[in-house]
Design goal:
Layout lengths: L17 H55 L5 H24 L5 H30 L2 H31 L1 H9 L1
Helix pairs in contact: 1-2, 1-5, 2-3, 3-4
């Protein structure tokens, strides 16, 4: 049997080596700093997104008001519904084009914008389907289009709730942005 030529090297210490402990500490500091930077990035992205939403708001109001008028009419007057929705389709299309121009930086805001954008695209499509079905006097297709319209509008409203959640989650970072 061979003896260890360096008996002083035998491991008798407990716990990690000082080098490993330093590496773990640096990793922890980096992770905390990285998480703080990410929160700050999301907050900056949210600030930009809210600024953009304020620019989209007038078009949103026009379309949502048209949808409210149609819903309030119970779709009883085909010509009114056709005219109201057809008149708001260009505004809807312009709104979608404006939203597509915004390029979020962070994953959180990208997901929010995707939900919002998809909701408006679905609204535009279902508005066109309602108009088309009324023009053809196809009331079975109208029932389907109305359901799709309500689902699309709910998707847009869900994106508003997502925005509220993100704003609340990043409230402190947003406050610090306002101070600087």
């Amino acid at each position: 049997m061979m003896r260890d030529p360096h008996p002083a090297r035998t491991l008798t210490r407990q716990g990690p080596s000082p080098g490993l402990a330093l590496l773990l500490l640096l990793g922890l500091v980096f992770a905390c700093t990285s998480a703080k930077q990410e929160q700050h990035s999301v907050a900056q992205d949210l600030k930009s997104y809210v600024t953009a939403i304020k620019q989209w708001e007038p078009k949103e109001k026009i379309v949502l008001a048209a949808l409210a008028r149609v819903k309030k009419s119970y779709y009883a007057d085909d010509d009114f519904v056709i005219r109201t929705l057809r008149d708001s389709l260009p505004t809807t299309h312009d709104l979608i084009a404006d939203v597509e121009k915004f390029e979020p930086v962070t994953m959180d805001v990208q997901q929010l914008q995707q939900k919002y954008l998809q909701g408006w695209k679905d609204l535009e499509s279902s508005m066109g389907d309602v108009v088309g079905s009324l023009q053809r006097k196809d009331y079975v297709a109208l029932a389907k289009a109305k359901n799709q319209l309500e689902t699309a509008q709910a998707e847009v409203f869900t994106s508003y709730a997502m925005l509220d959640d993100l704003l609340e989650m990043h409230d402190e970072s947003l406050k610090s942005l306002r101070k600087s």
